[in-house]
Design goal:
With 347 residues, this protein is of the alpha/beta class. The protein has 14 helices and five strands. It has one domain: SGNH hydrolase (Rossmann fold), CATH 3.40.50.1110. A five-stranded parallel beta sheet has the order 2-1-3-4-5. The chain is globular and about 60 Å long.
């Protein structure tokens, strides 16, 4: 009898443990989201967060939260580091008085990543002008865990990409979904970089006496020397390219365009310029897929496509490397794009 009584008392206790654990996880997740919904905290961390892949999750979240809720629709510059490093907002605000402009470009930002951002943007500024930069590699880029969510999985499943994913790709999807439960986990790599910046003088950082981090990684960098290009010309560089993801990126682009069309937003897609010789570093299927997609976009009536003939002539001096514009290139392309957007907007 005593043993029977003991076992019957133990069972309810065992059932309560998972419930307590689940409650603890839910409380942690709620407090974590509450912590990172504080805009002052995000601004403080964002001030000292170096730009780049590690900082992108927090800096893009802050950039979206800083969008104005009221007033004229803002101009949003979206895409990869080509956009972040290569476009300035000043010409857009100059040609569209009263219209704020925000650069939300992220490192290797693919259509899957921009689709993720679009849902954040929708909660803050559903009406906007979307200026989206594309170039071949971002249509074949790898998954980035901090920008994975249910829609990413939907794009992978809709085009049959899931069956072609490697085990490591599937682990990235799983860990990306896990990161979505906790902003701290999502920001973890950037927080280490942030700590590295402020650690030498925490007091100066807290009182804002430390200078903020630059908004660009390459702004002060000189162009690559001629040897850099000579070593890479006519040599295929598959780094960061996942051909098996091409369909998912194309599906994400279609969903993004459909979403913007539903909102009644103007979309300008840029076939972003690259340095002469860049195409010789691409896999043939990467280049062919990009050309096919650009040709399809050129036939659409629900967007405006800006390609090389629409932009100023660029020289090799207008590039830092094969894909990023120098200061002179940034000025030329930003001014021309601002002119195009202003004309489309009737200004």
């Amino acid at each position: 009898m005593p043993s029977s009584t003991s076992s019957s008392e133990a069972r309810p206790r065992g059932r309560r443990v998972p419930a307590a654990f689940l409650l603890g996880v839910l409380l942690f997740a709620a407090s974590d989201h509450l912590l990172w919904s504080n805009r002052d905290l995000l601004r403080f961390v964002g001030r000292y967060m170096p730009p780049g892949p590690n900082g992108d999750p927090l800096l893009s979240t802050l950039g979206v939260l800083e969008l104005p809720r009221t007033g004229p629709p803002p101009v949003l510059l979206l895409g990869s580091s080509q956009v972040r490093e290569g476009l300035d907002c000043a010409p857009f605000e100059r040609r569209l008085p009263g219209r704020p402009c925000r650069n939300l470009g992220i490192s290797a930002g693919s259509p899957l990543d921009v689709l993720y951002l679009s849902r954040q943007i929708d909660r803050r500024a559903p009406r906007h002008v979307a200026v989206l930069g594309l170039f071949p590699k971002v249509l074949h880029g790898r998954l980035k865990e901090p920008f994975v969510d249910g829609s990413t999985v939907g794009c992978l499943l809709s085009r049959g990409n899931w069956r072609r994913l490697s085990g490591s790709d599937r682990m990235e999807v799983a860990f990306g979904l896990l990161q979505g439960l906790s902003p701290t986990l999502r920001f973890k790599d950037g927080l280490w970089d942030f700590y590295g910046v402020v650690r030498p003088d925490l007091g100066a950082a807290w009182s804002f006496r430390l200078p903020p981090q630059p908004k660009r990684l390459l702004a002060q960098q000189p162009p690559q020397p001629p040897e850099y290009f000579a070593l890479r010309l006519n040599k295929v560089d598959p780094e960061g390219v996942r051909p098996s993801l091409a369909g998912a990126h194309e599906e994400a682009l279609e969903r993004l365009l459909a979403h913007e069309r539903q909102r009644g937003n103007r979309v300008i897609v840029i076939d972003f310029p690259t340095r002469p010789g860049y195409e010789s570093t691409l896999l043939p299927e990467t280049l062919e897929n990009h050309r096919r997609i650009m040709a399809g976009l050129a036939r659409r009536s629900d967007l405006s496509l800006v390609s090389a003939p629409d932009l100023p002539a660029l020289t090799t001096g207008d590039f830092l490397d094969f894909t990023h514009l120098s200061r002179t290139g940034r000025s030329k392309v930003s001014d021309r794009l601002a002119e195009i957007v202003a004309r489309l907007e009737g200004s």
